[in-house]
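Annotated sample (chain length 565).
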Amino acid sequence: MRWLIRRVTRKGKGSVAYEEDIHYGDTLTVGRGSDQAIFVPDLKVALEHARLTALGNGQYKVESQILAGVRVNGAATQNVNAGPGTQVEIGGTRLTLLEPSGDFDAAVEVGTIDQAEKQAASDAQTLPTALGQTWLSRRWPSWTLFALVAGLMVLLPLAAHYSQKLAAFEAHSPLPTRNAWQAGQIAPSHQFFGAQCNLCHEKAFRWVRDESCARCHAATKAHADPVKFNLPELGEARCAHCHRDHNGPEGLIIRDQILCSDCHVGLQKSTGGATTLADVSDFGDAHPQFSVNLPNWDASGAFAPVRTSLTTPRIEEKSGLKFPHDAHLDPKGINSPGGKKVLACVNCHVPDAGGAAMKPIDFEPMCQDCHRLDFDIREPDRQVPHGKIAEIQFMLDEFYARRALEGGYADTGAPPQVQQRRRPGQALSKQEQAEALAWAREKSRRTGENLFTGRACTVCHTVALRPDAENPWYVAPVRVNGIWFAKAAFTHAKHEANMKCGDCHAATDSKASSDLLIPGIDNCRQCHAGEGATDKVASTCIACHGYHDSEFQVLSELQARAREP
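Output written by the structure step:
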């Protein structure tokens, strides 16, 4: 089967952009996992949430892979056959099944659900709560209705709760059962509890206590150091202030900005000057400039990143590399052994499996085509490894020692026994061997000097000579950062659909590798604003920041990424 996947992206001023992909196979998988045919970057979505199967003749089969089901044309279902025009909602993503055309056997359109549309649907389901909103205009009908509702929906289910016989009778009658008291569909992550409400609700009509949450989430870190931030608001906060269940697919996390801004305003006063954090209340107009983690190693060699605001003048990235972005991104191309080669950002910067960060730069697949490490014109295909200095020197010593002892190496500067071809088994005298190996050592040293300080290593690295060391050449370590925003989350996957690398990173104008190409807050504010924004993407605090983040965990991840080869 040949699928057409059409992605719809809404841009500013009501414009719409389309991007088309091709998928081969009978089935399309949909979910949050990086291996899914349709990737949905939403934490409320399961790793594999649903499957779409092409049945032929424009017909499809929609299958849910989770217990909660998927919404098909507004109704939750586990398994259904559908035709063109059917809409499948998964998190904030809408899939519209299309009539295939041309060479395609199946087609689907992928778009996002507009927030205004979701709110309108929610309002449409809201029942009237005031008497004036109903047809009743007299007091006695309202009391009659109240008594009927109280009897059927409260008293009868309550009696069935304590009477098994009544409960059994209700189960086979049209009368309301105890299920009428259900607060709503629980979150997918809690559905394995089943009907064991007492796991969270220890007593009827009581709030869920934090201790009930901690039975499963004991490893969850506190938001802040209770000693440094001795704030009553933190001590009084319950898990349920930020997490509400029984919201169905809407998820557990409350994303209201006020949950964060209540505490992050007037921090100097509330902490008695114990913090250096700046006040934050709204991304659009009350947020400080970004701070980045610059790579740094202390005297002992331990990774110790330095957090620096982008307002710092002449900020530099000291990576240990010599790399001019503008030369490599020349639209006319760069010189390579195969002729002119035009490069783009994607030639070196490849997203990781999740699409959030970039994989480390790898010399062999990304650089070696142009920056060859050959060292001998007589064997142009032979190259030294891009690795440790000792390994390179050992390879050179071994290469020339072998050539010296085998003979037939056409170098006018070599002794005769090295240049002359010999019959197999013709041995050299001890004097001749000593002379040949002495030449090999000198040849290896001169070749290494040419590689490290001439045409190879020094082009990209800082190289120094240490005559007294076992390995005389020293290459400064490469310290390329992996995570720039230690206090915030950013994913490239959510921006790559309708943005280019140059929209945020001024790489084409960068002449030195020390240039910091991380965009500031003004760049993000071109598209993002605060919670109440209507003309831009409304972004609350939790859109970029986590609550339970541990500083030690963040630093550990930074260190691991920084040390990746």
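Annotation: Residues 552-565 have pLDDT under 50 and may be disordered.
Annotation: The radius of gyration is 33 Å.
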